[in-house]
Amino acid sequence: MENRGKQNETPTTITIKGILSLLIANTEAKDTNKKVISLGIGDPTVYTCYRTTSNVQEAVVDALRSNKFNGYAPTVGLPQTRNAIAQYLSRDLPEELSPDDVYISAGCTQAIETTLSILARPGANILVPKPGFPIYGLCAAFRNLEVRHYDLLPEKGWEVDLTSVEALADQDTVAIVIINPGNPCGNVYSSNHLEEVAETAKRLRSIVIADEVYGHLVFGSTPFVPMATFASIAPVITLGSLSKRYLVPGWRLGWLVLSDPNGIFKNLKFVERLKKYCDLNGGPATFIQAAVPTIIEQTDEAFFRKTNNMLRHTVDICCEKVEEIPCITCPYKPEGSMAVMLKVDFSMLKDISDDIDFCFKLAKEENVIILPGIAVGLKDWLRITFAAEPTSVIEALERLKSFCRRYSNVQNGH
Ligand SMILES: Cc1ncc(COP(=O)(O)O)c(C=O)c1O
C-alpha cells in the first residue's frame, strides 16, 4: 500500500505558472493606484504591441470556413502541415528535411512531453540546463526519468558548461537538452559552440534535444543557427512552435522534428515508438494545422523585423535601467528570446531573505510581477520577461529601483 501511495505523489517541481499565480494573488499596493505590471510570463500577446499579422489570422479563418478541416487529422499531423514545417526548417539547414521527419504537436510543450516519454526507460537520465525551463523537470518527474542539471556560464554568454556535461553523463544518459535562443537567459549560441555541443554528445553517445521555440527571435550580433546543422555529428530532435515567432501561443501549434542523417533513431526503434505515441496525443485543431502552409509562405519579413526591433528596444531599456540599481547586475545582455537573468546582491539589502521573499514583497508593495530565479533553477537571481510595452518596462523598472532603494542597507539612499 505504502509503495502504491508513493507512486502517485505529485511531483514537487516548481512551475512558472504556479509561482506567478501566487505572486499575482499577492499584489495589493494599497496606498497608490499603481496598476499591476507583469514581467513574469512569456506571453507577449497580453501587450497590444505584440499582435500577430492579419494574413496569419486570415489563413486560419479561411481554413475554418472551408469546411474541409472539421474532422480528425492524422495523429502525426496533416501531410501539408508536415511538409510546410519541413520546408520552413530546411531553409536554414545543410540537408533537406522530409515531411516524414516532422511530427505536429500541441505547442512545443507537447513536443517536450512526447520526446521525454519516448526516451524514458528504467534508470535513464537526461541532462538539462541550469537555469532552464522547468517543464523539462516536471515532465521527467511524471515519467520517472532522472534529470541531471548542467551549468550554463553567465560570464560566457550562458554557454553550456561542457565540462559539467561530461562529468554528469554516464551510460544511461539518453539526451542533452539545449535551449537556443535561451529561456531564461536570452543566450544565442554561436555556430562554433553548437558544434562543440554536438561533438560532446557524440563522445557521450547521446542525442541532442534542441528546444528552438524562440528560433529566429534574435536581435544582437549573433545569428540564429539551428542545432540540426550539426546532425551529422550527433542526432538532433528539434522542438518548436508558432507560439513565439508568430505571436500566437494560444493556437498550440508545435512540432517535433528528427534530424538524423546517420539513421541512429531507426536503430533505437525511436521512430516506431514515436508514431505509436502520437496516437495517444490530441494534436492541435485540424483547421489550425491546415492554415500553416499559408502562414509560413505569406508572412512578411517586416512583421518579424518589427517584433525583433521591439524586443531589442525593451531589452535595451531593461539593461540601462538595471545599471541604475546597485544591488542588481546583469551579467549578459540577451541577444535573443524574451527573458533576462539578473543577479541580486542580498548583502546590500536589509529585511529580504532571498529571491522568493524579494519577488513577493515587490508584488505586494509595487504591483510588479517578476519571477524568482529559483523557479528556473537559480536561487537569488531574478528573471524578467521584457516582451512588454516599452512604457510598462520603464514603469516596472522604476518601481523596482525605488523598491531596492527602500530596502538598501547602504547609507545615503542606494
Ligand atoms: C524554452 C521553452 N520551451 C517550450 C515552451 C513551450 O512552448 P509552447 O507555448 O509552444 O508550448 C516555452 C514557453 O514559454 C519555453 O520558454
From TrEMBL:
Transmembrane segments: none annotated. The keyword Transferase applies. It comes from the Eukaryota. InterPro entries: Aminotransferase_I/II_large (IPR004839), NHTrfase_class1_PyrdxlP-BS (IPR004838), PyrdxlP-dep_Trfase (IPR015424), PyrdxlP-dep_Trfase_major (IPR015421), PyrdxlP-dep_Trfase_small (IPR015422), TyrNic_aminoTrfase (IPR005958). GO terms for molecular function: L-tyrosine-2-oxoglutarate transaminase activity; pyridoxal phosphate binding. The modification N6-(pyridoxal phosphate)lysine is found at residue 244. Pfam families: Aminotran_1_2. Keywords: Aminotransferase, Pyridoxal phosphate, Transferase. One of its GO terms (biological process) is L-tyrosine catabolic process. Its cofactor is pyridoxal 5'-phosphate. Residues 34-397 form the Aminotransferase class I/classII large domain. The keyword Transferase applies. PANTHER family: TYROSINE AMINOTRANSFERASE. Belongs to the class-I pyridoxal-phosphate-dependent aminotransferase family. This is Transaminase.
